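Loading example: each entry is read as two labelled lines plus one structure line.
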Amino acid sequence: MAMRHLITGQNSCAPDGASSSNPLNAFANAVLGQSSKTQSIKELPGSVSVPSTSDFGTAPPLSTIPGSEDEFKQDQRPLARGADFIRGGPANDWIESFRPPGVPEFGGAESQFAEFDQIYSNAGTTIRLPLDGPPQRVLSGVLHSFLASGRAGVPFQPVPVPALGLSESDKQRIRDRSCIMARHILADQPEEYIQAQVNTLLHSLDIDNRMRGPMHGQYPELEQYWNQSQSSMGPASMHNAADKWITEFGNQNNNPESWENSFEQQYGPNGWASEFEQHQSQMAMGQMGGANMANLAAMEQSRMLAQTLASNNDPKFQNSKFFQFVSKMSRGELIIEDNQVKQGSASQSNGWADEFQTQYNANANSWADQFAHEELSQGADKWASEFASEHNQGTLNDNWVDEFSKLNVTDEWAEEFSGGGFGESSADPWADEFQEQLSSFKQSSGASRGVYVFSEMNPYVGHPNPMQEGQELFRKGLLSEAVLALEAEVLKNPDNAEGWRLLGVTHAENDDDQQAIAAMMRAQEANPTNLEVLLALGVSHTNELEQGEALRYLYRWLQNHPKYGGLVPPQSTDSPYGPDVVRLFNEAAQMSPEDADVHIVLGVLYNLSREYDKAIASFKTALQLKPQDYSLWNKLGATQANSIQSADAILAYQKALDLKPNYVRAWANMGISYANQGLYEDSIRYYVRAVAMNPKADNAWQYLRISLGNASRADMIAACDARNLDALQKEFPL
Amino acid sequence: MDGSSLKSAQLLEQMRLHLATDAGKELTKKVGLVYQLNIAPKKLGVDEEIFVVDLKKGEVTKGPYQGKPDATFSFTDNDFLGIATGKTNPQIAFIRGAIKIKGSISAAQKFTPDIFPKPAKL
């Protein structure tokens, strides 16, 4: 069915009361059904306090339940209005709805249609606007051209409009309706385009508020369904409604692929999960508002019961009649009326579930990826029950589902799940977090493969001498700036080993070992025998607890050393044995006890073998030879910290910081030492200092979050998650 | 922990030392549960090494627990490290299928990043 037919109601759209099978009409009915129902559109579906008044807003608000018989009758009334739709289509009706009562229609019905038709066929060409005349006409013109540009897929040209003197409520109506309308008409367009269109429109009408973002229109489909079911959910229309619903679903989603795609774009694959949950709870709530509330409540109850029952693994039980009865109840196939069991008329939620399942199965692949090896083929109910059954092996108390449904939990995990109330917001942050995790996995796996990740928007690109600039910044201790300058250098000269090396050193001091390793590996490619690079790689891999790698690089350090290379047996090995390497280095230390570097490597090697006392002794020896080496003080401190001598460690870190005040790694290590001693409040201040100096120090952010939790400062966790440095620094000054 | 090439072994060694400190003793008082960790180098369930973090006695030992631990976790080396350092959210790791849990879930829920000491960096 062409868009045009959808709107004008021609073709298969019967021009009588059955016009509700036209999805756009039904939609418009819901949106425009009563001019005073604007509020209900604005509110999220599911709110019970929908004000419902008569058509022209003259009667006092009725206290009817939405979807009740009364409201259904009200909807029957504007049959004449149904004809209106056929004439002008909802788009015109939408515009028309801004006409205040009492003001004559903009032209006759016929001209209305003609105008619409003309706009449609002229789509893309400039529409001449009647910019003079009464405000309503101007407004009408603007809205028409907005629609036209939307259909043609061209950006809406902002038009200078004389002051219309719109009241606040008018503005709100325009805003709300144009948002919804645009989303519907331009459903095949990207979200940004829709937003841009509407924002331009609102701007030219001098309506300040921007188009509501995700908070409002997060579930546009859902809003539509809600509105549709609102307008026609009377008891008499139960069957009809279900049919209609399915038809509409089919119409609107006859391209499930694109629906799925756009959804995935918006929410990622796991958006499904949250949408489903959202839908489910909203549906449940919406149905509660209906006249057959009792039935639906019973359905809800039995659904939960069915879930619990489904978690029982006994096949005998699974096949029992009682179980089947309950699951039928839960799907609304059976309803109980006057204590009699009856076959339910094709219930909405049943059809709905089926639809979802179809969609769901079509999308099974991506789910399968997400939940690798989990057998998920049925939908969230099944999913939830799998959760339950998986833990049925334990005692009953161990059932997660139980835990969550009790909601009087004290455990942090469960609290995070239930935080912010059920349904409304719990699904979303959860999904967000999931996505964040996924992306961080991707990122970290990329970095661990040694791929250097360059900063976006580097102001030093194009700098005449970024190397010199980088060295200067590094000396001044402006590490994050130095990173940018050095990145510009290695982008310019990818074979500059010294550039890569200094970049690696900077990242290490900035407490980012992944990037340090990636940079050092490039340095090593350019110059495979540079001793500093080999040592730095050994240290960074040690920090990442990668013993084998660390050992290999430190062994290579010895192999390539002009003085000690001869100590290494000629048959080279790729996986040296730790104690052998230690022995060789000890020989080297005997050869030249004045070489601080040998002692440093020995200290690192003893860290690898967790012989911390020996490591501390080696670093102390090295410090006697090189007392101004701040990184050496930090190495001593870190070793002491890891061998649980946190008090000594703090003294060593302090030395390092005296020598290099912007040494992010030492600040972060300070925090770790305080945290490991249980002094969480103190640790927070040091972590905050570290992340303030390098907001990319992910480790420090993670530790900060943990310390906030331990210090009972959950109030600041949101600031931490949002990486709000201002708030954190204000709250935790050092 | 000796002889293990797992990264987790390094952290567990630190945990062992940590449990002897005041902060560590505080932890055993607070949690008082026994966890068994089955850690696989690469693929879940393959070539697992078994460790026991006994927060009743304040010990970390290698080998299966003699008796019934409050909860048993199975994960890979990297996933365990991610959880212990706060990089990975345990719930999400569970939902991803990256953790398998046996035993009491309320005990499992107390297995959070904050019970582990953090490694300092050289």
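Chain B touches chain A at residues 1, 5, 7, 10-11, 13-14, 17-18, 20-23, 26, 81, 85-92, 95-97, 101-106, 109-110, 112-114, 117-122 (CB under 8 Å).
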